[in-house]
Amino acid sequence: MTRVLVVDDDPAIVRALVINLKARSYEVDSAHDGAEALRTAAARHPDVVVLDLGLPDMDGVEVIRELRGWTRVPILVLSARHASDEKVLALDAGADDYVTKPFGMDELLARLRAAVRRAEPAGDGGDVVVETEGFTVDLAAKKVNRGGKDVRLTPTEWHLLEVLVRNGGRLVAQKQLLREVWGPSYGTETNYLRVYMAQLRRKLEADPSHPRHFITEPGMGYRFEK
Length: 226
Known about the structure:
The protein has eight helices and twelve strands. It is an alpha/beta fold. It has two domains: 3-119, Response regulator (Rossmann fold), CATH 3.40.50; 129-224, Arc Repressor Mutant, subunit A, CATH 1.10.10. The strands form three sheets. The protein has a five-stranded parallel β-sheet with strand order 2-1-3-4-5, with helices on both faces. A four-stranded antiparallel β-sheet has the order 6-7-8-9, with no helix packed on it. Strands 10-12-11 form a three-stranded antiparallel β-sheet. Strand 7 and strand 8 form a beta hairpin. Helix 2 (34-44) runs parallel beside helix 3, helix 6 (155-166) crosses helix 7 (174-182) and helix 6 (155-166) packs across helix 8 (190-204). The protein is globular and about 50 Å long. The termini are far apart.
């Protein structure tokens, strides 16, 4: 069973999510502030977190950063903040998706399923290992090693890397990347790609400002080169 942690200080939203998730056979825990969310996540080990940013004791972005210090659990932000810079801030902190309030329950559940799917190990991973001079990508184990140390990636960072590596040397269009990584309803949110490509470059490139492996084709898409 998939366990979901719902973090929101609005009792009506928590109640609606709990009812809908349980009706679809999810196990659900809830928290009403950031401190409770962090305690519950540590104790219950959810498979996905649905997180409001406007919490009474701390900003939700801080909760994301705290979680990312020790877990790669998918984080789906559910917030009334509509500004693009707010979304980028949450994604840059480590969130995997962002849904604005008011929201449609069907869309939210679809996004949640997609987030969980991205975090699951591939059933047909095989033994494909891709090596560059600076890092190694093990597609079967879903691991990246750089300088003898494992590199911690969020589920979304990993999925983006995986798509690019599996298409090594080939241009992957922006729209294709968005749909493969975030889902079929995406196609124009190119700011997501900029944020996550910057994160991958910071973690894996020797010189992130002059990338050798993660190449941007302006206005078209991205390409992975060994």
